[in-house]
Design a protein that fits this description.
This protein has about 150 residues and is α+β, with helices and mostly antiparallel strands. The protein is about 15% helix and about 30% strand.
Length: about 150
């Protein structure tokens, strides 16, 4: 069957739905004091930046308000796992809270590494709520990088 929309308009339809979704998200999440009781069961996970140099992979995770002792990092084969628990803020009896929006609870992030790394040379630093992992590439992984000439 023929499409009744001109081809130019057809490409605009998905953007309309995307814009509507953005407006609904802003209306809900930008509105002050929305009911977060429904959101309480949603798990949270830290945001990650993953970058690569010739010699290593670097993973940076934002973990604000956490302490080093509450974070566990492991590498099982090519699966890098960052997990931990952010402690809940205890309410004080002399304060009356109108809203509590800061998340607490456990989190889990797993990332499959695209190459082999040297497990015994992984460096992990935690400072000011930011976890930085430097994972040196194995010698075999470094050799696999090949420049391909474009003809």
């Amino acid at each position: 069957m023929f499409d009744l929309l001109p081809s130019k308009r057809r490409s605009e339809v998905p953007s309309v739905f995307s814009e509507m979704d953005d407006m609904l998200q802003k209306m809900w999440f930008d509105f002050p004091f929305h009911n977060l009781e429904e959101d309480a069961n949603l798990s949270w996970s830290p945001r990650l930046d993953v970058s690569e140099t010739d010699k290593a992979l670097e993973v940076v995770a934002d973990l604000p308000g956490m302490e080093k002792k509450d974070i566990k990092v492991s590498l099982d084969g090519d699966l890098l796992t960052i997990k931990g628990e952010k402690k809940e803020v205890k309410e004080k009896k002399d304060k009356h809270y109108h809203t509590i929006e800061r998340r607490s609870g456990s989190f889990y992030r797993a990332l499959r590494l695209p190459m082999d790394v040297e497990n015994d040379k992984i460096d992990a630093n935690f400072k000011d709520g930011v976890l930085t992992l430097t994972l040196p590439k194995s010698k075999e992984a470094a050799k696999k990088v090949a420049q391909i000439e474009i003809k």
